Automatic annotation (TrEMBL):
Pfam families with a match to the protein in the record: HTH_41 (PF14502), YhfZ_C (PF14503)
Membrane-traversing stretches: none
Domain YhfZ helix-turn-helix residues, every copy: 29-76
Protein name in the entry: Helix-turn-helix protein
Lineage summary: Bacteria, Bacillati, Bacillota, Clostridia, Lachnospirales
Domain (Uncharacterised protein YhfZ C-terminal) ranges: 81-308
């Protein structure tokens, strides 16, 4: 009985070490020198033999080919990233971003899929930064795309996330604008019904800014319902994505630019957030994702020089 229990514990430790080692190797490149076994021992909290068994397993299944150079150390001759991923506890990398209803979001999804093409990766789409960030914090998704404003507000409120990539001004959207159902109006007026989405940190904060001091009624609706609600008279005004206005015109509605005092660039800056302290994931993403390449693909999709895929 004691032998069987001991063997079970050994298998569990080897399995854990294999998973951790595979995750570590995912962030490596061919030609890299691997750490000494003793460093992996300390890093994973297992014995030398357990680390060696994990290496043996990954070599035998074709996930890694190593080349020994005597006192110079051991180097990576070949890596099979998909096989490495198959040996991780989480066999699929999962991200989440806004619904791709504009060319910018379509471009962003296209860019991320292109950057992570070597990996087993999937992207989900959901409205509201609040929900996306909570899904990263809970570990359901490994990363999320949101505005810099939403990320900073979440971090300041105690959410255990951090910004891994900042893609710069205009990368999330060109800007937000105010849409009005009555073309004779120039802004928010007393008595108006205004769209309010508490799940969207950007939309709700911008709305708070522009209705300050006005006697209005906030109407709780999803941001994506704004256009329909304006047309059918449910609301009189709502904050909206200017990229969609440029693409779809919405001729029946009046577009009003927002004052600088009500808006800042953090609302239009895209960032990629991960759970705080996940250094292995951060190293993996930094290996594959280049801000310059992402912005290049985003620009190509925006200018219709590249077909989006996601």
């Amino acid at each position: 009985m004691g032998y069987e229990v001991g063997k079970s514990i050994l298998y569990q430790k080897t399995g854990l070490a294999k998973s951790l080692l595979a995750l570590d190797l995912l962030s490596k490149n061919t030609g890299d020198r691997i750490q000494p076994i003793s460093e992996y021992q300390e890093k994973f909290g297992v014995s030398r033999g357990t680390v060696q068994n994990a290496f043996t397993y990954l070599k035998e299944c074709g996930a890694v080919v190593l080349e020994h150079h005597g006192h110079q150390g051991t180097y990576i001759e070949k890596l099979n990233y998909r096989k490495l991923q198959e040996n991780c506890m989480r066999k699929e990398l999962l991200g989440i971003m806004p619904l791709p209803y504009s060319l910018t979001y379509e471009g962003f999804a296209t860019a991320i899929y292109s950057e992570l093409d070597e990996l087993n990766f999937n992207m989900a789409y959901a409205r509201g930064a609040v929900g996306r960030i909570e899904l990263v914090e809970s570990g359901t998704y490994q990363f999320a795309i949101c505005s810099r404003y939403a990320a900073e507000q979440s971090i300041s409120s105690g959410k255990k996330i951090e910004i891994a990539f900042d893609f710069g001004h205009g990368s999330f959207l060109s800007k937000h604008v105010l849409l009005l159902a009555d073309e004779s109006k120039d802004g928010i007026c007393d008595g108006m019904k205004v769209a309010y989405d508490s799940k969207s940190l950007d939309q709700s904060r911008i709305t708070d800014n522009i209705v300050k001091g006005k006697k209005i009624t906030l109407i709780p609706i999803r941001t994506q319902q704004t256009i329909g609600a304006l047309i059918d008279g449910t609301i009189d005004a709502g904050v909206w994505n200017y990229d969609d206005v440029l693409e779809n015109h919405h001729d029946r509605l009046k577009v009003v630019s927002l004052a600088e005092t009500d808006y800042n660039y953090s609302f239009s800056t895209a960032v990629l957030v991960i759970k705080t302290g996940d250094e292995a994931l951060k190293a993996l993403l930094k290996k594959y994702i280049s801000v310059e390449r992402v912005l290049g693909i985003l620009s190509e999709v925006r200018e219709k020089r590249r077909e989006p895929f996601f």
